Amino acid sequence: MKLLILSDSHGWSDELKAVADKHRQEVDAIIHCGDSELPRDDRALEGMNIVRGNCDFGVDFPEDFIKTVGDFNVYVTHGHLYNVKMSYVSLTYRAEEVGAQLVCFGHSHVATSFQENGIVFVNPGSLRLPRNRKEQTYCLAYVRDDQIELTFLDRDGHEVTDLQRTYLR
Predict the structure, then answer these.
(1) Residue 81: is its pLDDT beyond 90?
(2) What is the pLDDT of residues 95-153, one digit of tens each?
(3) From start to end of 13-135, where are the E strands?
(4) Helix or strand holding residue 3 (H, E)
(5) Using CA atoms, how far apart are residues 64 and 79, in angstroms rounded to an integer?
(6) How far is it, in rounded angstroms, from Cα 167 to Cα 129?
(7) What CATH architecture applies to the domain 2-168?
């Protein structure tokens, strides 16, 4: 399974659509971790699985969801309800509660990934307003039988090599 993971595009429609269209044919699902600041019917969100962020002011998106593919569970949330700018503890508890193997979140605009208690967590960074680095980033996650490989890219599709990680499942 291959996932395109984006977050925090903050009103960008054309730029978001360009990234999604670049990968649409090669991925099994597109996940947006919130703060799109776009209405559900915006053409950029076509075919995306999306959650509501703290800057999304409608009721068009759920607070979170679980996407199950076979026996693999992906939990998606924006992260503001779990205070991810301060700590990941609440988010790790929630991931364990829902039986997630992969957690996708945003909110902090900081591209990162880590593994805790066998669960892989990924924040793709911000497509529009990155923090702690200059690159506007998103992530491709390759889920295989024995590993999860994360490839972070900048908005132009160039790999951001210092963020690349492979985690054993």
Answers:
(1) yes
(2) 999 999 999 999 999 999 999 999 999 999 999 999 999 999 999 999 999 999 999 99
(3) 29-32, 48-50, 64-69, 72-77, 102-104, 112-116, 119-123
(4) strand 2-6
(5) 9
(6) 27
(7) 4-Layer Sandwich (3.60)
Question: Tokens for 79?
Answer: 């992260």
CA distance 154 to 119: 25
Residue type, 147: Q
- Nearest-CA neighbor of 88 among 63, 116, 65? 116
Q: How far apart are CA 72 and CA 83, in angstroms?
A: 25
Predicted model pTM? 0.97
* Confidence at residue 112, expressed as pLDDT on a 0 to 100 scale: 98
Contact, 103 vs 91, CB < 8 A? yes
Cα 167 to chain centroid distance, Å, stands at: 16
Query: Closest Cα to residue 132, out of 113, 111, 106?
Result: 111
pLDDT confidence band for 70 (50 / 70 / 90): confident
Token duo for residue 52 = 């509501």
How far does Cα 29 stand from its chain's mean position? 11
d(CA 126, CA 11): 12
Q: Report d(CA 68, CA 65) in Å as an integer.
A: 10
